[in-house]
Each structure stands twice: as C-alpha cells, then as structure tokens.
Amino acid sequence: MCSQRLKPCLALELLLLFHLVLPTSTQGHSEHWVTAISGTNVSLQISNLPAKYKQLTWFYTTSQKILEWESNQTILFNSKFKGRVSLGQSHDLCIHNVQKEDSNTYILRVLTESGTEKEWHIPLEVFDPVPKPEIEIQKTQEVNNRCHLQLSCRIPNQLINYTWYRDSGPFSTGLQNSVLEIVVEPNNYSTFYTCQVSNPVSSKNDTVYFTSPCKLGTMEPGHSSSFFPPDLPCLF
Fold first, then answer.
1. Does residue 21 register a pLDDT over 60?
2. CA-CA distance, 70 to 53, in Å (whole number)?
3. Residue 13: how many CB atoms within 10 A of its CB?
4. What value does the mean pLDDT of the chain take?
5. For the segment 107-162, what is each residue's pLDDT rounded down to a tens digit?
6. Which of 70, 95, 121, 188 is most buried (CB neighbours < 10 A)?
C-alpha cells in the first residue's frame, strides 16, 4: 500500500499511531505543592473542579484508591489511610494525623456528566518540626588582635536550612551552613550570633553573646539585641 509513496504514507501511519497511544479522555492538571507538619490535619483542595460530575475518586498511587464518591455516597477503601481520611464539603481530601510517610503526589479523578474524565495531581510533603538548635563554640582563637571564631549548630539526620545572624543582620549566602567560621576584628565584632534552623513548616533558633571579639558574654535581664530574626511563618 505504501510502496509508491513510502515517506508520506509512513508519516501518516505514525501520526495515527501517536493519537491512538495518547489518552484522549483524561485531562491532567497540576495543583500547588502542599506542605504539612507531622501530626496535624491537612486538606488537599482542588481549585477548579467542574460544577457537576458523576463520580470522584482520590488515589494515593495510580492503583491505590483512598476513597470514592458517587451519587452522594462515599466509599472508603482498605488502605493505610482508613480511619484517617474524610471527604470535605468541597470534596477535598482531609487527612488526619498526617505522617512523613504520607508524602506523595495524590491523584484526583473526576468523571463529568458528559463522560469526560479529568485528573488532578497534588504533591504533598510532610515534615517533622525542627528541633531547637544549640550553638557549640568550636574555636575562639586570638591571633594578632584578631579572633578566629568557629560556631556550630548542626542538626543531624534532617534536611535543614541554616541561617546565621549578627548585629547588622544575616551573613552572606556563602556562610550559611551548619558551621560558621569567621575572623573578627575589634572594630567589627558582633555582640551576638544567632543560628536559625528551618524547614518549610517550622523554625527555631539559638543565640550566643560576646563582650569582645573572642570573649563570651551573657545576655543581661531585660536587654534585647538590635536585631533578632523572627520565626518563619507557619503555612497553616
């Protein structure tokens, strides 16, 4: 059939195969990334659900259903979420006592009245609250009237962002690690150094004080530093 016009015919066959392979009934949509603190409740909401539909199904994976709604009836499937999920008034998925293992991209499939299937993907990531850090003084070495200072506030086994502050504000990006190593001179030393540890849902900090470049001090009652970083806002 294609011997006389091989190239045009082959291109047509490939085009037809392409359309056969692609799903034509499902329209995919991606929702914004959702974060949550472990132990809290979270609601996975869809911003643009159709006004009317026949059936609505929430999935943990493409093969693992969580719950299904049809004709005003909700069915809960036998999954790790049983007893921890419910369907909200707007048919959002409510997960109670969410855990780090619940982090995943959730899928919502809706069958409209016209028979078209639409699909939404909602990534959820669950974090434990960060623990309070404790600054360790690893080095205070004075050489030629300059202080070699090394401070640490490492939190092990967690994905943590570190931010160091001094009197004048945060240090440069290149110094934002679990260990702060700087050389301080008498005319530019800071009266305090603060380490803030944070993840997308929480933050905590610790502060040490200095009376000279290499001499530790204590914070006097009622005294506050000229700059103190606020905690990161909670996302709930």
1. no
2. 9
3. 12
4. 83
5. 999 999 888 999 999 999 999 999 999 999 999 999 998 999 999 999 988 889 99
6. 95
In CATH terms, are 25-127 and 136-217 the same topology? yes
Contact 138, 151 (CB under 8 A): yes
Pairing of strands 85-87, 73-76: unpaired
Place of tokens 């909200």: 88
The length of the chain is: 236
Q: Which CATH superfamily is domain 136-217 in?
A: Immunoglobulins (2.60.40.10)
Distance of CA 51 to the CA centre of its chain: 31
72-104 tens-digit pLDDT = 899 999 999 989 999 998 899 999 999 999 999
CATH, range 25-127: 2.60.40.10
Structure tokens given for 210: 């200095």
Give tens-digit pLDDT for 189-206: 899 999 999 999 999 999
Cβ–Cβ under 8 Å, residues 106 and 34: no
- Which residue shows structure tokens 């999920």? 85
Burial class (CB in 10 A: 0-12, 13-18, 19+), 19: exposed
> Which residue type sits at 171?
F
Rounded to whole angstroms, the Cα distance separating 70 from 168 reads 60
* 183: Cα within 13 Å, side-chain hemisphere: 4
Question: pTM higher than 0.90 for the full model?
Answer: no
